Each structure stands twice: as structure tokens, then as C-alpha cells.
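User: Here's a chain of 263 residues. Predict its fold as C-alpha cells.
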Amino acid sequence: MISDKAHVDPAAKIGNNVTISPFAFIDADVEIGDNTVVMPYASIMAGTRIGKNCKVYQYAIVGADPQDFRWKGEKTFCYVGDNTVIRENVIINRGITPENGTRIGSDCFIMAKSHIGHDTVIGDKVVVGNGATLAGDVVVDTCSILSSNVILHERSHVGKWAVVKGGCRIGSNVPPFVIIAHNPAEFFGINAWIMKKHGFSDDEIDDIAKAYRHLYQSGTSVFNALKRIEADVNPGENRDAILNFIRENNLRVVGAHLDVVED
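Assistant: Prediction complete.
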């Protein structure tokens, strides 16, 4: 299943039933899991670890050198989970230090011409739309969707089950379960349709919506909104996910008021 017209370094570790098409490039110090397909002209660079049942399309480059002046040529890594699809002309950079690395989860769909910078961490079941650009040290949590041409600036964090609509520029943090749209980016609602389709109950969705009414529609500060959420929303995993995300990101979330005004 490996074309004699592909370049496969003898030091690469190739799993069972892997397809490597003509003119693909597989560097040294690469590991590719069982049943993965590498299409023509795709390049898998040194330090890349790709899981099982993945598909890498034409002209994608996985594990490219990081675009950061802090990288001085050290051996660094890029990890891709199982069942992930990487479409045409995608570029994914390795990390800049050996300890961390760029990490793409399992069951992700990375669409054409998107760019994922060094040390970015993407959870499982994430969709990255056509032409999306993710800077270094970005985090995108599980089950989130970045629509086409989204820009995530360095150290941005997108929470789980969030949707960032096409063309948004994000320089802060997107809390879980929300839809963010427009430029400047602002709260557009909660991701109710997709969450309900994937098993969230009506009560869970109502509680999430109530939490974000306090954050985005009450006219108060993030500090006060958190106190209102704790007092008014039923305790549970989803409420805790919202509160913890906002606190862990120093109260800085897209479209919310930072001013601390006591109730």
C-alpha cells in the first residue's frame, strides 16, 4: 500500500494497512498508525505522530517547522489522534519545545487551507473550517466548531461545544456552549440546536441559557455575573464548566464587561 513513487524515510514507523500515495513525503522520526491514508503530495514531517484511521489530503503539511523565533531547531513534536481528517493545503506546525508539542485530538475534521500554529491544543471532535487561522498556543476544547476564515490570536481559548461563526477575529476567550459572531466578535446565542442533537436535555439547555443571560444580557460586569449565576442557576456539571472556564481565564471572555461593579 506504499507507492514506490513516494519518499518514505527508512526510519519512519508505518503501521499496518497504511496507504502512502505517489509523491507523498514521509520524513524520518515519523509514526503513522494503522489504516491511515496519506494522499499524493502530502508531507508528514519529522516529529509527527499520527494515529489510526486518519486521512491526510493532497498538499497538506503535518508537523512543519514552527513559525516562531523562539524555536532554535530543537527536536519537537506534533501529535494527531485517531480518525482525524486533514484536508488539502492544511499546515500544522510542530511545537517549539520538546515538552509540549502541537496536539490535534481524535475524530477531528480540519478543512482545506487552514493553519494551526505551534503548541496549539485541539480537543476531540473539533471542526476547523476552510481557511481558519490558529496562532500558536491556542486551545480549542472538545466538540467545538470554528467556521471558515476564523482567526484565533495567540493564547486564545475556545471552550467546549462552542461555535465561532465565519470570519470572526478572536483575541480573547470564547466560553463553552456559546455561538460567537460578527466583528468585533460578540455573543450570538447558545449552541442549543447542536447540543440538543447530541443529547443535552431541555433543562440543561435552559440552565446554560440562563447563565449566559446573566453574563451577556444583564448589563453587569463579569464579576457580578458569576455571582448571579451561582445564585440563580441549578448546580451541575454545565454550570461548573461555565464558571470554571471564566475564572481560569481571568474573567476575560469575548463580548463581556470586565469592569468590577459590586451589586
